[in-house]
């Protein structure tokens, strides 16, 4: 398929000699391409129908900036876009209209190969239009994320000159593609000397027309060519050759699952009461293994006892499942109710069904009262159904508003998440393997190899002491159940959280006895040990056919999560780790970890000393945990043997299956790794790498704050090490290398980066290279650490840019999906999606212009959501809607962070905030900025 993009600077749609002469290039392009994207058509809205008569073999669609029926136009009509396609693709084409006058597109579906072509015309480069340019880039991002297609081409006149390094729009476009994992295909497939525009006034050239693609779209491009021979005006056409065969085929998802899942959202209160009563009777009938329950020997080798406890567990699960069978059948017969059905259609639908039944029973007469009644009621039903179809978005919005008014926040956010969740279809092949069964086998091999990649041995725990903590009480089971959120996916046993919460209270002592038996005998049943791995797409703009673009979600039994919570109460006193570890700890977060890094490095910059940092990336750190070494660490920490024995049995005997679509792979055992998403997993991982933190703290190098020396910070597996000496950093790197070798941690040198934060005196100094595991590390000037951009000049402009681009993207996403909602709903959405402003309180060293762009973006985001013009006074909008202005919000976030820091018991945070430990509180430039923000008006 050949696609052409061309800025026409005026398209004449008539058929006179003059019209045909003026569109000579367009007519020639139509004879050579399959799809033609035009910008600056200068057509009025009333002239867009003429696009279908330009060429006998082409149909077209477009957008205009001007409606002649609303005003008198003086001069030419600005802007406008159009897209034309060959009639042979009519059956495969669906026009994409985005309700804007600068973009129009096509969705094309050819033999299950679906891709999207978006034609855009961006504003010309000007400082005054920079915000508009960023807003439109964010609009494109929102569309790509919401699109059902993963193969998207965005082409047209971007007015971003890639041939000029000083071009503001050009630099924005390159940063936009890099941050959103999009490919600037025109930059890659064309030479650097390319140009698509020749100035009539100055005869200078610029490269303004481009194509940005998702990874799959870029892979399907054969080549790009600029048609210099058709340079009859200032703009030059650019042609793209697309190999449709390389577009990934997507498999339509089957709504029918492998098993019939119970939808608790469709269950009434009466049904729940009935279920509770049924479980009471079913659980009453469960037989207890008296001999096994009477056994209190933690070293018991009687396999009969083990089997009886496992059978008891299975009987409990069966009783719960059987009690819900009546609810399951009712849930399966129901269907998704369209918004407005109950209010506008249900009554007419019932009347139409009754009339049809009477007419059918009377012999399907073709005349008479019954026939007329059937016709009339059917027509009324279809009319009502048409109303809700046309007004579905409005009715859905009204439903959200009613949920807020009734304070039903659970239903409100459930509906929001449902509207905001656009699932991507699965590709028909992965790494060249086709067929659901074969792909499931491919995933089986991939995860089996990964989770059995570390050499280890089975752990044997003997001579277990009997302790009171082996006995589990019913109250512990109840507390654990209350901690699990409703509506979560279940494992292979199909037991949901609702099954447990709505069950009879007899479930609690039964599970308590069962779990006590598991702890005493060190065994678990197979259904607790079974885990389902579901590969999900990490980034829809990357290649869908690549194994590396998927991450696994582990679905385990909800009852196993209850057991994990019970075990955690017994383990947590033994799982304390280094103060340098901020991950998965109460009252600590990523922002506090970033704060500590900023303050420590900032202190040395204040003392005119450069600091050397290295951000270390560990490959599949959670998946490569050595079980034998993990359990040895637990024993060394004094964890009771009965707990280590149960964990060792759990990890040695757990089985995993991979689910791809509706296909399950064969099960496989795992010999290394902690389950990502498990309740205990993050705590066990912190224990596993705790000794690395200890070894780093033993090094006599680092940054001194008060009486303490700090040289590293951790957040789970994200590690940053730092030292004011180059030799010190290399020493720390060697410690990391040695620990990685001893404990099977595999570092990724290509993703690990060194950053040198230099003082003015050291800017021209050449420092030595740094090595990790024998590999030289790359030095970088900017890195994204825990979602926050850090630069070697220690300024915040780059992170502020990240935040205002995110604001534009969030606002465009909300506008696209919730534009019909009420003001109350929009305000709730704005608070949820646009006001968190992650790490904004940590900004202090930035340019005034950069911060102004952020303020403008915040105001524009709210204007965009409320659909008011940009010139409308933002402060009045915020006051009327009871939404904090940007400055007010920043003060609130700053005060909240200061309060959390001052209350923190973490020794690193206290060293930076407590004046009894150091002077950082008084010398900190960040804290001075906070005081000025809070107390200066």
Automatic annotation (TrEMBL):
Q: Which InterPro entries match?
A: DNA/RNA_pol_sf (IPR043502), Endo/exonu/phosph_ase_sf (IPR036691), Endo/exonuclease/phosphatase (IPR005135), RT_dom (IPR000477)
GO MF entries = catalytic activity
* The Reverse transcriptase domain, residue ranges: 517-790
Record's Pfam families? Exo_endo_phos, RVT_1
Output this protein's name.
Answer: Reverse transcriptase domain-containing protein
